[in-house]
Design goal:
Blueprint lengths: L2 H31 L3 H27 L11 H13 L1 H25 L3 H24 L9 H30 L1 H7 L1
Helix pairs in contact: 1-2, 1-3, 1-4, 2-5, 3-4, 3-6, 4-5, 6-7
Length: 188
């Protein structure tokens, strides 16, 4: 395997690891807010599957001598998770299903550059799981429940992002002003 493909493969594994970890956290968050026991169990089962996937990628990255990325969500992922949970399980599952389809394509591409037959087989098994997730989510989804519409979700997201940016800017301005001797005494 040439160094370009090796780099693409390891970067692909890192991306897959991050996505699987984020998906696991989203499924857990949805399960925590789900009142229907059967749906909660299904969401927890999906979270466990994502955990197994992330463990596979973490083990392979370690075998390749690659440092594992931190196991935490970015700000955007945290906001996305919050929006999904607030929008209700059905709406969240519809949105996640679209991502699962993207993940299926990501795994197909990763399989094509995998350095070993074992890697290709493992990737194909995970790809199959992602395709099964789509069917499981459709069964878990209950279209009769109240969910937010796309425009409502975007309004919530827009307000949340705007509030976060305003808080960050206000905090930065306050810190800057506190560091200067002239403004510091006015902020105490």
């Amino acid at each position: 395997m040439n160094s370009d493909n090796q780099s693409k493969f390891t970067n692909g594994l890192i991306t897959a690891l991050r996505k699987e970890r984020a998906s696991q956290r989203i499924y857990h968050a949805l399960a925590q807010h789900e009142t229907n026991e059967a749906r909660r169990d299904a969401l927890l089962a999906l979270a466990e599957t994502e955990h197994r996937h992330s463990e596979r990628w973490a083990e392979r990255l370690v075998e390749l001598g690659i440092a594992l990325p931190a196991d935490r969500d970015t700000l955007i992922e945290k906001i996305w998770q919050w929006v999904l949970v607030q929008s209700g399980t059905d709406n969240a599952l519809k949105r996640i299903e679209n991502n699962e389809e993207d993940d299926t394509q990501m795994y197909e591409t990763l399989s094509q550059i995998a350095p070993t037959e074992t890697d290709r087989n493992t990737i194909q098994a995970v790809k199959h799981d992602e395709q099964v997730h789509s069917g499981a989510m459709q069964k878990t989804s209950n279209s009769s429940s109240n969910t937010l519409t796309g425009p409502q979700v975007m309004r919530i997201l827009s307000c949340t992002v705007k509030a976060g940016i305003e808080a960050a800017v206000a905090g930065s301005v306050r810190q800057f002003m506190a560091r200067t001797t002239v403004w510091g005494r006015y902020l105490e």
